[in-house]
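Before going further, learn to read the protein records used in this course. Taken together, the tokens spell out the fold as the letters spell out the chain. A record is reproduced here so that you can trace the correspondence yourselves:

***
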Amino acid sequence: MEILNEYHLESACCGAAFPDKHWELDCPHGDGPALLVTRYANRLFNPREELQGLYRYAAWLPVNRQLEGSAPPVTFLSENLGRHLGLKNLYITFSGYWPERGAMMQTGTFKECEAYAVCARPGRDENKILVVASAGNTARAFGRVCSDNNIPLLLCVPLDNIDALWADSPWNDNVKIACTATGSDYFDAIHLSNIACEMQQFYPEGGAKNVARRDGMATTVLSAVTRIGRIPDYYFQAIGSGTGAIAAWEANKRFIEDGRFGKHLMTLVLSQNHPFLPIRDAWKAKSTDMLPLDEQTARSLAAQIDARVLSNRKPPYAIKGGLRDALLATGGDILTVTNEEARRAADLFLLLEGIDIEPAAAVAVASLQQAANEGRVEREAIIMLNITGGGIARYRETRPVVQQQPHLTIATGTPTEEIKEQLRHLFPGHH
């Protein structure tokens, strides 16, 4: 189903405005590293009740069609957790599977919000194959969305993370999984995806640079503001890249332009899983860039955290319009949470709210506990807690789960041309 949505793109570095015709990921003027932002013709936010799932927020999504199977985030006032923490206006925005609350994301993660937005963005030759690199959750979401909607997709994933790629049935043949060898990590998967994108038949999803990914993530804030009726005072989320926090800041500014929901920026209170703290370390050092971190140390630290999805070594921190700018603009901060604190927070959430949550979401809950206990947030403040994944245990209890298998595993040290030849054979009809 087509969605007619008027918007253009604008560069955060020079303000240049241009149409979204060719899957733009960078400023066409090349004035330096900067994110593009979406400018919607309709400055007033009005949900499209006639559209299904996530696309009820299509007014502020860079999409031109409606894909099958999407579900929006769900926001509700927390009574039990809020009471426990002494917070009177704690709103939980939940992305995952929780039928009792109306949350129906089949992959249990807010990465679905990204996938349904990215895959419905216009501007690409349908004969080309989308390439997504992922440590797990993003791959699971894109795999399902592309399988259900017959969109050609190459997923690049570390073999050690393949257990994150499950569904209630095998994915269709238009989705192929290429894995980097045992002992590799997310950045090896990114390297593989970059090799693929040197080939004519593939094109990159783009990560944080893709406006559809960020605006898809921003539907969490659209859900919260719609439910609350105003912009929250504080926004809590655990971060790996910080892209979701950038998206929240961008959505916040759109609501200020709308004018009906408040004129303030919500304070971003973000969290990382100790001991992997590259963003927090750069922020506390007041650095304009990420601090040097050698690869071996980074791998070692990342291997120690429960919330593996938060182990991004090269986040969009220093880029114009990126995470550092968002933190500075909102008076934000970054807290740290240990594995043990996150585990206790997950148990507390299950006890008080009645649903399982993913380790990254548990890091966010633990950071909110910290902030409440230390008096960092006012008891009356309107707080949005972004629970980015949950209900997976509930989902897996109710239906059989099929583990997806790699179509190709690249041995360490394989020459680039040989890798390209192997990738070519995965999609014989796309030369």
